[in-house]
Amino acid sequence: MAYENPWITVWHDEVDRPDGSPGIYGLVHFANLAAGVVVLDDDDRMALVGQHRYTLDEWSWEIPEGGVPAGESALEGAKRELREETGLEAAAWREIARVDLSNSVSDERAVLFLATGLTHGEASPEPSEAIDVRWVPFDEAVAMTLDGRITDAMSVVAIQRLALERTGGHTP
User: Fold this and answer.
1) How far apart are the C-alpha atoms of 97 and 162, rounded to whole Å?
2) Cα-Cα-Cα-Cα dihedral of 109, 60, 170, 140, to 10°?
3) E strands, the chain, where?
4) Which of 41, 46, 64, 107 has the most crowded CB, counting CB atoms within 10 A?
5) According to the model, what pLDDT value does residue 150 have?
6) What is the distance in angstroms between the CA of the first residue and the CA of the last residue of the chain?
7) Looking at the predicted structure, is the pLDDT value of residue 128 above 90?
């Protein structure tokens, strides 16, 4: 182990390469599963959350998402993150995808959901989060994934998966 904090562990491994020569491999292990939620209201508008992402030093529009610790199911974590970030609760939930987020350097996995039948409440973001909530038509969110306004991998996958379903390209 090269480094550890409550969220990640970084390993530095000595390995044998496929050709038999010695090499190294760095791996980032995530303590939590990731969960994300596409939220659609009755007018086919999607809730996006915007926040500054330290890693890129950029503002990012995304679906509500966050970490799911051991002992909490992906669905429970998605519901908690949605409530914390937006104040929303949903009556209907459906899993839409499972993805490996960057399997060349990390073991981070995500489960993505669709949430509908919304009830509005008050958001309670974590102290490390300063979040803006924006409602956009679903078609606009799809366009945002295509023109680079949304680049977060979980958001791109979830939004485009639903867009593909709508065109008949995939049956859930």
Assistant:
1) 10
2) 170
3) 3-4, 8-16, 22-30, 33-39, 45-53, 58-62, 65-68, 88-100, 109-120, 132-137
4) 64
5) 98
6) 40
7) no
Cβ atoms of 100 and 30 within 8 Å: the answer is no
Residues 20-37 pLDDT 10s: 999 999 999 999 999 999
DSSP helix/strand/coil, 153: helix
Whether 23 contacts 16, CB under 8 Å = yes
Residue 123: predicted pLDDT: 78
pLDDT higher than threshold 70 for residue 172: no
Both tokens of 76, joined, read 């429970």
What does the DSSP 8-state code read for residue 104?
T
Query: How far is residue 72's CA from residue 8's CA, in Å, rounded to a whole number?
Result: 18
Q: CA 139 → CA 113, 133, 159, distances in Å?
A: 18, 17, 10
Rounded Cα distance between 102 and 108, Å, is 7
